[in-house]
Amino acid sequence: MSAALAIGIDPGEAIGQRIARWTAQYRTSPGLPDEYLGPDGHPREVWRRLLERLGGLTEAEIMARFVSAERHIRDAGISFRIAGDQREHPWPLGAMPLVIEAEEWRDLSAGLIQRAELMEAILADVYGPGDLVATGQLPAAIVAGNPEFLHPLHGVAPPGGHHLRLYAADLARGPDGRWQVLADRTQAPSGLGWALENRMVLARTFPDFFQDLQVERLPTFFQAFRNGLALGAERADPRICLLTSGPYSSTYVEQAALARYLGLMLVEGDDLVMRDGRLHVRTVSGLKRADALWRRIDADYLDPLELNPASRLGVPGVLDALRNGTLVMANMPGSGLVESAALAPYLDGLCRRLLGEPLRLSHPRTWWCGDLEGLAHVQANLDRLVLRPAATPSRGAGRDALLAPSALAAERAAVVDALRDRPFDYVAQEPAPLSTMPGWERGEEGLYLVPRPFVVRVFAARTATGWTVMRGGFCRMSERDNVDPLELRLGIRSADVWVLSDEPIEAPLIGSQAAPRVRRLGGHLPARAADGLFWFGRYAERAEAVTRLTLAHLRSFGDAVGTDISGSPDAPAALAIRALLGEWASVAAADLPTALLAQQALCGRDQPGSARAHVTAARRNAAALRARLSGETWRVLADLSDLLSLDTERAFTESQLATRAERTLSHLAALSGLAHENTSRAEGWHFAELGRRVERAINTCTFALAFANDEATPGCLGTMLALADSQISYGRRYMQGAALDPVRDMVLLDPYNPRSIAFQVEAVKRHLNELPALAADGLLEPHCRLAGRIQGELRHGEAADFDAVRLSALNTDLERLADGIVARYFPTGPHAPRSEKLTGLG
């Protein structure tokens, strides 16, 4: 629901009157099942309970809650990407959950478990003895002709004994009102994280509803799922990794949410390496063994040595870890085979053969065109069927359908030719219009409910005692009747799924499960994550440097140093500021009018060195670290982005821009405060701090070259103090005005000034001492030796010594120090020393 739905309604309106007004225009389509109205045309009991509870709130109160939800989504950075689109879109949480009664859910769960067992049994036979094909129960072409059948895995017994650890199915009601499966998801099912995010948001929005309506809880499922991922691992305390394709994956945000919630290590292919037949994670502490891997990339991209050689997402040789049983994987590569719609005509027979019982959950009637009888039926009824690729899971009629009943004659002719040439590549299904559920609309007289098409994805996880079904799911609802919501994209909203129990629900308490072994370490840090944290710190510091430089050009610096350059664009300090902003690519030209120059430096979208560009870069690095950053950090980053996203076509006054710069500095200070007060002092914190400290030292040295050189004027020295945020300290220490040597001492050499270069280098040295050493020979590593030398020069140097030559040499050393840290902990290139050579395997 958007804020546009907010309207004025009589708060004294009775609950019954309010519900009657909401549902007065609710009209279902003939022949389509609906969630709100049952087969008898009357509201279902669970929906009556929900609407009565909603009716106890005025529409203004409902809107206030959803405005709060939208704010939380924005602050927490919950978003999604459409495949092929690099932009992030705000998470489209709908205003109405899908509610299902407990008895119906129990029947649905039984059917889902049966289907998961059936898929497991089919995979076990296909990759094992092959009896189904040998006896004619399953056509060989459906197996061998499917690109998801991975020949290198034939005969490989899955470590832990199971091909599937997570099974999902997309469901809707069929014409008879019973739930049916639109698609099986066994490759790398997505949506579990979205379901978790939806529940967390609505739990904040309607906390009282969950208890009043007896909504089933989710934590026990996620705990069971996490334990199930480790089943079969060789070690008692296994390291479980979630393999992602990276921040530009359309489902990366949910993957990060799951890694954070379940306590998994979020890794990309480059973070992993095979050694001695086992999979390891590259960390800043050396190679650390991975015992279980939950993959969220398609199997074909998993191992470029044996599968797709063009893949840059997987790990060379990882299939060997499956063959020798040293790695548990969810789900096993090749499990995507049973997503094929070509299996549908045979599933009931296979279920009777393998499980000894009929199939509980049906699917739209399907014909495989590789079967002669099926092909004959399809050719005779082509005008009323939907034709799809046999080996591609159904993603919606608008995405992968080759032919629909409304197709043009030219399309029909092409399909006829395709069926003649390669009929086994296609399946045909009877059209299955989606069932509907209530969604909000806004009219002249207020809010009202209308039926909207929806699909719900439900999940089952394998545990030590068998399959368990999550008592909820991930629902997608279309905002328009002609948009198929089988895949999340614009025009689709998500919804939480509430299973309403007929008995009071006891929320699981923290600590109600068996207590884990006490530990204080936060786990090992992948080198890629350390790299991201290092650059996150550097970009945040760069944004601050540009903002301070811009603010120095917009206002005076107070009585302590008695300078004012805001009205003197030709003063030496102002000229130096402009030159530096131009050198940093913060502005298009150094001779712009003051207000325009400041606007570009702060908010320029086309200037790669603007404060906005650096905040964007910091947020981009943070996006790759979602599993490691708090919600408060995301909130500050979102506020910073808003602050610096000014309309560049509109002119702002110098006063407005100065206010904007001051608020930006306040938010950057909040970001720094969160790092100090809310971040565990583990390896990740050290790298974020190293990035900040190194960048601040480099920037301060650059400022000193421009504003504290031998020709510096009082205005330049005042600017230097302002840029180092040291005016007050200087004024309290020296009664007279700014002088060269005292200013240099304060901003370069003073170990007590948290803005001085000396202070930054001391901090860098402490952080480096906390990180793992390159070798156990007791010798200092090159970057540590360099940091020690810089530290010594600053400790024993005198302010008068730091002329332009000495400052330039110091700046070069600081840049070399930054490069040395990068080369040591984030090596790149085929011949770079990898962290596995640094310490023993763990």
Q: Any overview of this molecule?
A:
It comes from Methylobacterium komagatae. Pfam families: Alpha-E, CP_ATPgrasp_2. Helices cover 42% and strands 13% of the residues. The chain contains 28 helices and 20 strands. Strands 3, 4, 5, 16, 17, 18, 19 and 20 form an eight-stranded mixed β-sheet that branches.
Layout of strands and helices, then pairs:
Elements: H1 15-23, H2 45-55, H3 59-76, E1 79-80, E2 89-90, E3 98-101, H4 102-126, H5 131-134, H6 140-144, E4 166-173, E5 179-185, H7 192-205, H8 207-212, H9 219-229, E6 240-243, H10 252-262, E7 265-267, E8 272-275, E9 278-283, E10 286-289, E11 292-295, H11 318-323, E12 328-330, H12 347-355, E13 366-368, H13 372-380, E14 386-389, H14 397-400, H15 409-421, E15 426-429, E16 436-443, E17 446-463, E18 466-469, E19 474-478, E20 492-500, H16 527-552, H17 572-583, H18 594-603, H19 611-623, H20 631-643, H21 654-677, H22 683-707, H23 714-723, H24 727-733, H25 740-749, H26 757-770, H27 782-796, H28 804-825
Parallel strand pairs: 3-20, 6-7, 6-11, 11-12
Antiparallel strand pairs: 1-2, 4-5, 4-17, 8-9, 9-10, 13-15, 14-15, 16-17, 17-18, 17-19, 19-20
Helix pairs in contact: 3-7, 4-12, 7-10, 16-18, 16-19, 16-21, 16-22, 17-23, 19-20, 20-21, 22-23, 22-26, 22-28, 26-27, 27-28
> If you average the pLDDT, what whole number results?
86
Estimate the helix proportion, in percent.
40-55%
**Tally of strands:** 20
Spans where pLDDT lies below 50 across 5 or more residues: 1-9, 394-399, 509-513, 557-567, 829-842
Share of residues in strands: 5-15%
The rounded Rg comes to 31 Å
| Number of helices, counting only DSSP H or I runs of 4 residues or more | 28
Organism: Methylobacterium komagatae
InterPro entries: ATP-dep_Glu-Cys_Ligase-2, CP_ATPgrasp_2, DUF403
Protein name: Circularly permuted type 2 ATP-grasp protein
